[in-house]
Write a structure and sequence with these properties.
Helix content of chain C: 55-70%
Oligomer: heterotrimer
Strand order of the largest sheet of chain A: 2-1-3-11-4
Order of helices and strands of chain C: HHHHHHHHHHHHHHH
Distance between the termini of chain C: 19 Å
Number of helices of chain A: 20
Largest sheet of chain C: none
CATH class of the largest domain in chain A: Alpha Beta
Number of helices of chain C: 15
CATH topology of the largest domain in chain A: D-Maltodextrin-Binding Protein, domain 2
CATH architecture of the largest domain in chain C: Orthogonal Bundle
Structural class of chain A: alpha/beta
Helix content of chain A: 40-55%
Low-confidence stretches of chain C: 1-8, 242-248, 281-289
Radius of gyration of chain A: 27 Å
Shape of chain A: globular
Chains: A alpha/beta (492), B mainly alpha (302), C mainly alpha (289)
Chain lengths: 492, 302, 289
């Protein structure tokens, strides 16, 4: 018996040590568990998650404080985040604090909202936005937007239309979404004796370009075209040929349908099938993620010559190469707007919005709107893109230089392209971006749907089966449509 | 009857300090496991709205889970891939442990064990990406096949073939965990008294016989424990599928946890997600109980 | 007894060949990922971005490491990881050993019920408790604190069950002998069970150490204060913070692999240390004498 007491004491000792080491004297496991038992399971606890983080910022905060939960926006480390909060606080007359989770943002967002956390602004993607609006988690800020000169005048009304759900707006913008263009390796084009500007924007024109590229290469692993087929998300420049918009759209009766799954889209799928059969489409396209596609495009591999990617990536490919000392003679990426629509225009896909939404329990809505307003100005745009003055860059009046820190941050503190419609960047764009941005007029945003992942999976799956010849085009499209309806993505 | 009760009471009294010893552990589990678990299960009976206002909807979420064909398919996929991985990984781990025990050169043995453990140290995003590259049309496997079949060989995009999908998942899954199992087995093997082998050798037993009649019986209890503990994980494989799945093979490998992730995290459909997760818990419980009975697990401690 | 210099002790002919082939195949495939991580981590930025397997250097370079050290400060996160992981794992293994020892008491009433109670905690899918674990931590004021990082997952069913199993293999005769010599319960636990189960103890310690060291999800959800970041969280944050939806700047592959090398090396060092106990458990004879 006595011996057992010894054991118990040993155990107690270990626990006490643990409590001391772990809790720093703040409380032992025993009292902690007591608390847990006595507290209710209700979601609306009075204590707040972020309350621990009460580093007082600029003292003069007349407009109260604003708490932001951010996914990508803000400083890149603790120190810079402090400067960022300070800059934002000074500019808005608020006391702004930003929480930026290190990773797993989706999970953190859900946990914080699930536990009733009190943020005034939360970062959400378009799909999350739609879902949260559906649950009544977000606050309708339509009247605030209407009454704000900055928000109405500085932002393209089309942008607002994109995030209006049933006539109401629940969020402001984090950044301007750019579009995806057809990126082309101009060096390989020249080698094959082609001029990218005179490529005919038709099925045959592109087919011949790809065929010539393939024939000019001696590398058996070289495939002239790659696209992230399994997501069916980078195909808009090609589906333009039949005027089909990617994602889901509404028909004349207000019913949702997916143009890629219509029989009218068959020629494009069949064109891809031909590219695959003739060894022009990289068979890895069925598996590759965006990252793999880009890797093949990079100067160091050049295993493909034509991809569809963000306008900014045209520049990034060039920048990476030139940073490594590769001259534009040896590697240059240029861009095109893709195939021509039946009525002679082009269609490009635009990123689905990334937004700052106001949760229903926000304490300082005026403050939150003030932050949104600041994001929509030239100065706000400078902060969100290039960064903090005298930290990321120095200089005045058009005469700016990036600091070493600023250079590593690549002009992106949440919004590489700010939402302000007349925004003038402090530094010139990377090579090739200007041209890619010039196609912006052809770009339009996809309809915000809550089940984007289902759409990608279903269209990607059946599209690939059609291309591989496992099913006939008609059959594949039929199955695509019925599975889309079955999973609640479309309605016909 | 009454006497039994009295006996039990006396026994419990005798062990009261032992119970006391366990108390902190049990309290810990109540607070950090059971309390969140119960809150989670409560949510499965609600239409959960974040920021409050959740409403009880009875069995509505469970109805959705049980009637939706996506969940059926995901359950089948979970069982096949999870179960297959478990069996294959178990055998592989055992072989590695036995091989390890045969290596007498210390440095080789140590190097071999370290190497087999490496995949376990790295995350799925690293090793999953590696296998995708190896299996790609321009990857190693196709390169090897081209060597065998000559220039006319057309490369196969293995990861885009629904027919290979489950095999690949099972193989790569057990490949990643085999060293981990091996290490658990090794901890038992090294405690085998060396004189046993010596005696058997003198009696003329071959090395294979020694393995069969000395090594294996000693680690049978550990095998049972490892089996029971890892069977609990067969329905909970998320990271691998998240990294390695693509649209062409999703029908074959998308599992319950992935579906729960889609519902719960991507779509904020917490009620349905927790209901599905509760089903996973119950299924795991049933499977584990079955394996426990099958292996006479509790008899180890009699 | 040990025959040094021989590859395998008494295996002959076909069996030896089979074992060697199996060992080689396993070893080679399992060595690949670490090797690739190492090669890419020490390649130039341009080379690391190329497609396909990279099993040899095109150009050796430490650009990736330079990038990591330029954009993040790793000293504090490293110390955080070391403190949180070591404290947590040491306490966990000790508690698991005690609890495991309790559970091998043959006569203990409700023993199976208790072990079922513990085992059930291992079956819960994380998604079921995602929100409620966060709520709990909020209620206990464990968010953004070392306490929270240590207490969550402090006791694991896995460790307890494994320790119980390793203790079970200790021959009863040893315990009996010690009892006759007048050892008390604690003495038996400390002097007989713990030393004999050292390989098991080291194994469980290492497994839990790895799991804790590598865990990202939990610390990332419990901690938003950067001064509390652990090493993997800090490095993940570095990779993530350069990622935005329309992707303009992304940490280059060599930096990502360098980050993986930086997090894995401490584990490998600990493994080498733990291996002393893993491979050469104290032989039973030593305890008997």
């Amino acid at each position: 018996m006595n011996n057992r007491k010894w054991l118990t004491m040993g155990m107690a000792g270990v626990l006490a040590a643990g409590a001391l080491a772990g809790c720093g004297g703040a409380g032992t496991t025993g009292t902690s568990s007591g608390e847990a038992g006595s507290q209710t399971a209700g979601a609306s606890g009075t204590t707040t998650a972020g309350a621990e983080k009460t580093t007082s910022k600029s003292a003069a905060a007349s407009g109260g404080s604003v708490k932001i939960l951010s996914g990508v926006t803000g400083g890149k480390d603790e120190e810079e985040m402090k400067l960022f909060e300070q800059a934002l606080s000074e500019a808005t007359g608020l006391n702004v604090t930003i929480d930026k989770p290190a990773s797993d943002y989706d999970k953190v967002l859900m946990q914080k909202l699930g536990a009733g956390s009190d943020y005034d602004l939360v970062y959400v993607t378009a799909s999350q936005y739609a879902n949260l609006v559906g649950q009544g988690v977000l606050l309708d800020i339509t009247s605030y937007v209407k009454n704000s000169d900055i928000l109405t005048n500085n932002i393209d009304p089309k942008e607002w239309a994109d995030i209006t759900i049933d006539g109401k707006v629940y969020a402001g913008f984090n950044k301007k979404e750019v579009h995806r263009v057809v990126a082309i390796n101009n060096t390989l084009m020249k080698k094959a004796g082609l001029d990218y500007k005179s490529v005919e924007p038709t099925f045959d024109g592109y087919y011949n370009m790809l065929k010539t590229l393939k024939d000019a290469s001696s590398d058996p692993d070289f495939y002239p075209i790659n696209a992230v087929m399994s997501d069916a998300w980078d195909l808009q420049p090609y589906f333009a040929a039949v005027g089909a918009k990617e994602g889901v759209v509404l028909d004349e009766n207000g019913k949702k349908y997916a143009p890629y799954a219509e029989d009218s889209a068959a020629p494009v799928w069949e064109w891809f099938k031909k590219l695959y059969d003739d060894g022009l489409l990289d068979p890895s396209s069925f598996v590759d993620k965006t990252k793999d596609m880009r890797a093949k495009m990079e100067a160091s591999s050049q295993k493909t010559a034509v991809t569809a990617d963000w306008a900014a990536w045209v520049g990034l490919h060039n920048t990476t190469a030139s940073a490594a000392g590769v001259s534009t003679e040896d590697y240059e990426i240029v861009s095109l707007p893709g195939l021509q629509t039946p009525d002679g225009s082009y269609m490009l896909g635009k990123g689905s919005a990334s937004l700052f939404a106001v949760p229903a329990n926000a304490k300082n809505v005026e403050g939150a709107v003030k932050v949104l307003e600041y994001f929509a100005t030239q100065e706000g745009g400078e902060l969100l893109s290039t960064g903090i003055k005298d930290h990321d860059y120095t200089g005045t009046d058009g005469n700016y230089t990036l600091t070493d820190i600023g250079a590593t941050h690549g002009g992106d503190h949440g919004a590489p392209f700010p939402i302000y419609k007349d925004y003038k960047p402090l530094f010139p764009y990377a090579t090739g971006v200007e041209e890619a941005m010039s196609y912006a007029k052809y770009a339009s945003i996809d309809m915000i749907i809550p089940n984007e992942s289902d759409y990608k999976e279903i269209v990607g799956k059946w599209g690939i089966r059609i291309i591989k010849g496992e099913v006939s085009t008609a059959e594949g499209l039929q199955s695509m449509r019925s599975e889309l309806v079955e999973r609640g993505v479309t309605e016909r | 009857m009454n006497k039994d009760k009295k006996n039990l009471w006396r026994k419990m009294k005798r062990f009261r300090s032992i119970y006391l010893l366990l108390l902190p552990v049990l309290i810990y589990f109540v607070v950090f496991s059971y309390y969140p678990l119960i809150l989670g299960i409560v949510k499965s009976f609600q239409e959960v709205k974040l920021l409050g206002n959740s409403e009880f909807v009875g069995l509505e979420n469970y109805k959705t889970v049980f009637t939706n064909s996506q969940y059926h398919q995901a359950f089948i996929n979970s069982l096949i891939v999870g179960g297959g991985t478990f069996v294959f990984q178990f055998v592989w781990g055992l072989v590695v442990a036995l091989v390890l025990n045969e290596i007498r050169v210390k440095i080789l043995r140590s190097a071999f064990q370290t190497v087999t453990f490496i995949p376990y140290l790295l995350s799925w995003s690293v090793v999953g990406g590696l296998w995708i590259t190896i299996l790609s049309p321009t990857g190693m496997i196709n390169g090897f096949l081209r060597l065998l079949e000559g220039a006319a060989y057309t490369p196969v995009a293995f990861m885009a073939e629904a027919g290979f999908a489950r095999t690949i998942m099972i193989f790569t899954g057990s490949w990643k965990g085999a060293g981990y199992f091996a290490a658990l087995f090794m901890a038992s093997i090294v405690s085998i008294d060396g004189s046993l082998y010596e005696a058997a050798r003198i009696d003329g037993a071959s090395r294979i016989q020694q393995i069969r009649y000395i090594t294996v019986p000693v680690i049978v209890p550990t095998m049972k424990v490892v089996a029971v503990l890892s069977v609990m994980g067969i329905l909970r494989n998320f990271d691998q599928i998240f990294v390695m799945m693509n649209a062409t093979i999703s029908d074959k490998v998308k599992n319950l946890l992935y579906l729960i992730y889609e519902q719960g995290i991507l779509k904020f459909n917490v009620g349905e997600a927790t209901a599905a997760a509760t089903v996973v818990l119950v299924a795991t419980l049933l499977i584990t109980q079955a394996v426990r009975k099958l292996l006479h697990y509790d008899a180890i401690y009699e | 007894m040990k025959k040094r210099g021989k590859l395998s002790n008494h295996l002959k002919g076909g069996w030896a060949v089979l074992f060697i082939v199996l060992a080689l195949i396993t070893a080679v495939t399992m060595f690949l990922p670490m090797w690739e991580v190492f090669v890419v981590g020490t390649s130039s930025t341009l080379d690391s971005s190329s497609a396909g397997l990279k099993l040899w250097w095109h150009e050796f370079s430490l650009e990736g490491f330079e990038y990591v050290f330029r954009v993040t400060k790793l000293a504090k996160p490293f110390l955080n990881s070391l403190f949180v992981t070591t404290t947590g794992t040491v306490i966990q293994v000790l508690l698991a050993a005690l609890a495991g020892y309790v559970l091998i008491q043959k006569e203990l009433p409700f023993r199976n019920a208790i072990s079922s109670f513990i085992m059930l905690t291992m079956m819960v899918p994380g998604d079921l408790t995602l929100i409620s674990v966060y709520q709990l931590n909020k209620q206990l004021h464990l968010l953004n604190s070392y306490q929270g990082l240590i207490l969550n997952g402090l006791i694991s069913g896995f460790s307890i069950m494994m320790m119980r199993n390793y203790f079970q293999t200790v021959p009863y005769t040893l315990e009996e002998a010690a009892r006759i010599d007048g050892s008390g319960e604690f003495g038996i636990f400390a002097r007989i069970y713990m030393p004999i189960s050292l390989p098991g103890l080291a194994t469980v310690f290492f497994m839990e150490y790895v799991a804790r060291w590598n865990s990202i999800m939990l610390p990332a959800t419990l901690v938003t204060d950067e001064s509390l970041y652990t090493l993997p969280v800090m490095l993940k944050a570095m990779i993530m913070s350069t990622e935005s939806t329309s992707g303009t700047s992304v940490a280059p592959d060599n930096a990502i692999m360098a980050a993986i090398i930086i997090t894995t090396v401490p584990l490998l060092l600990i493994y080498v240390f733990a291996q002393k106990f893993l491979l050469n458990g104290i032989s039973m004879g030593a305890v008997k004498e």
